[in-house]
Amino acid sequence: MQRLLLVCILFILNNLPIHSQLLRVGVFNELNTKAVVFSVIKGGYLMTGDNRAIQTFKPGQNIYVALEGDSLRCIGIRTDYRLFKVLKFDAMTDSASFSLRTIEPQSNLRYYDDNLELTVQLGKMQTINIADIDKYIAGVVESEGGVKASSEYYKTQAVLCRTYALSHLDRHIEENFYLCDGTHCQAYNGRNSGSAIIMKAAFDTRGLLVTDKDTVLIIAAFHSDCGGETESARNVWLIDKPYLKPIKDPYCQYQKNFRWEKEFTLEQWKNYLSENGFHFKQDISISQLNYTQYSRRQYYKVDSDSITFQKIRTDLNLRSAFFSIEAKEGNINIHGRGYGHGVGLCQEGAMQMSKLGYDFRKIINFYYQGVYIKDLKDVPDSKNKTLKLIEKAN
User: Fold this and answer.
1) Is residue 11 part of a domain?
2) How far apart are CA 230 and CA 247, in angstroms?
3) Which residue, among 310, 315, 338, 306, has the nearest Cα to 233 in the 3D structure?
4) pLDDT score of 81
5) Is residue 394 situated within a structural domain?
6) HSE (CB half, 13 Å, CA atoms) of 298?
7) Fewer CB within 10 Å, N side or C side of the chain?
8) What's the confidence (pLDDT) of residue 19?
9) With contact defined as beta carbons under 8 Å apart, do 130 and 115 qualify?
């Protein structure tokens, strides 16, 4: 009787109509995971092993899963010590959620919506959260933008994160999922922690994406603070997009990441430049090392030698490439502005625009000029090949 009930539940889950896209997100992707604990937080879950219904779980119940060779061993179910190739935990209600912790190696506890799939890939356990795209977006927005901003900012970030996600669904396709949970894709620390304003922003903008004039999804780049002027994508990634050109941004001034400073000795600075091809004359004046960026520039120059500000930023681990150099009393003082690569949306500027009453459409069109906000159904997959992946999966 129990087995018949499980089979009926599995049939119902597999034949429910799908009203939204589901994303396959590799979580704990950077870890060499050997063992995890899955626990139900809310709702009910059906566990299947190699496509066979095994057991249902209710809130408070958990299971330990460990890697054994090329299989997964379960401890804590009625059929203890059984081995499987693929384990799935399918949500039995739309509001179901679970927690997941890696035991080997140990990690912090994380919470997720919807479904979990466990498999073995290249000698490690692969953990995939299969979640409604808008629940995923809410989690990304919280991870990327915090929980202290206002509604229109969260709507802005939700539209951009959705655009980024759907334009990069092929990043991990060979690993059997679409996106990872790290900065390689988008930071995703699990489900929205309970901020109603973030979840509402994700669902209020459901299906909205940003395209260029040719209805191709844009490169939805964003960063913390531009320092008063955004950067050209050409100077950072050697790509030239008309909507990723520098713009003056008055809104991020006086925010926490607007200004920064760092100091080096004169000897350290000259040694660094020498290692990068600079040739100093014996009679060079210290004042020749000064350089002021009133507006963003690509190169720092001393006489006929030059180096990009982007390279200096990367090599010296600076907050941004928007900085001026002051040589003074045997030291080099770097006076910087902004935080991040500077391309696209300035998050602190967008937050301030939201506070001043701008809606998400105006914010997006301020930072990405000449773009269009469209519904997914109006974006052709013939020009956006990654959209075919999610349509095929759903």
Assistant:
1) yes
2) 5
3) 310
4) 58
5) no
6) 8
7) N
8) 41
9) yes
The reply to whether 184 falls in a domain is no
pLDDT on residue 160 = 98
The pLDDT tens digits of the residues spanning 295-343 come to 999 999 999 999 999 999 999 999 999 999 999 888 999 999 999 999 9
41 located within any domain: yes
Q: Which residues contact 283 (CB under 8 A, 6 or more apart)?
A: none
Rounded alpha-carbon distances, angstroms, from residue 84 to 7, 52, 80, 87, 327: 18, 10, 12, 7, 65
The number of folded domains in the chain is 2
Q: Contact 170/14 with Cβ under 8 angstroms?
A: no
- What is the identity of the amino acid at 78? R
Q: Which residues contact 248 (CB under 8 A, 6 or more apart)?
A: 228, 229
Question: Strand 83-84 and strand 71-75: pairing?
Answer: antiparallel
* Cα 204 to Cα 114: distance, rounded to the nearest angstrom: 20
From 68, 99, 133, the end of a domain falls on: 133
DSSP strand pairing (305-308 vs 299-302): antiparallel
* 333: containing domain: 259-337
Domain end call among 337, 368, 385: 337
* CA distances in angstroms from 364 to 224, 369, 372, listed in the order given: 15, 8, 9
Peptide bond into 59 cis (omega under 30): no
